[in-house]
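Propose amino acids for all 226 sites.
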């Protein structure tokens, strides 16, 4: 990929002079350095092309005014940088879907909000995003009933949710607790708080931020591509 707006600021270990110095100490290190740089460039190009293909499939109606818009260019550069540092194709598809849906909703004027949502996707693993999507499916199947609070609603599915996570993601219950704490820090998940009779803790629900993000990546959630 050429050194343009997309790749400026994308940094990896080979940009570290200490690492480059260590490579030079290896017999044939200079060749290794060149090969590693070429492979890194190839990987970045492959990932960027996945993003471009996804954006093309999104059928964006781009005009010259839009392409010259500071907000559009800023969002595109931020999304591209996140893309070339992402290993999983599924996450690149999510980044493209967020970008496309934001564009179609004419939301790039809320650039701070876009950056926050982009950062949330960028920071989480595909497994963590899939766990959120799984919890989403249970919440959708079990709406709050009359004279029932959200904790009581979770009685209908929480045990099954935990068992499904254990089976599908090879996580035991202690490991899942750690994942849920991380998801809580992301702002997409929140634990039930307050004094509830016969409640020992450990359960939670999807936050308003999750449903805001869900609006933009709904296709991936409903199609099960994450």
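Proposal:
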């Amino acid at each position: 990929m050429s050194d343009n707006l997309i790749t400026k600021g994308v940094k990896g270990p080979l940009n570290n002079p200490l690492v480059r110095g260590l490579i030079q100490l290896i017999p044939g290190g200079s060749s290794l350095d060149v090969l590693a740089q070429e492979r890194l460039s190839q990987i970045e190009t492959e990932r960027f092309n996945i993003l471009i293909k996804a954006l093309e499939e999104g059928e964006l109606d781009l005009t010259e005014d839009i392409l010259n818009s500071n907000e559009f260019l800023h969002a595109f550069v931020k999304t591209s940088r996140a893309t070339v540092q992402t290993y999983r194709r599924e996450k690149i598809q999510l980044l493209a879907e967020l970008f496309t849906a934001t564009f179609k909703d004419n939301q790039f004027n809320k650039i701070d909000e876009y950056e926050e949502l982009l950062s949330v996707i960028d920071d989480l693993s595909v497994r963590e995003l899939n766990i959120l999507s799984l919890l989403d499916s249970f919440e959708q199947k079990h709406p709050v009933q009359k004279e029932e609070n959200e904790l009581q609603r979770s009685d209908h599915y929480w045990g099954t949710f935990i068992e499904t996570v254990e089976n599908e993601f090879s996580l035991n219950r202690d490991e899942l607790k750690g994942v849920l704490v991380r998801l809580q820090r992301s702002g997409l998940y929140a634990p039930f708080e307050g004094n509830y009779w016969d409640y020992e803790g450990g359960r939670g629900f999807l936050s308003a931020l999750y449903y805001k993000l869900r609006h933009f990546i709904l296709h991936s959630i409903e199609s099960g591509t994450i």
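The longest strand covers residues 189-191. The chain has a mean pLDDT of 80.
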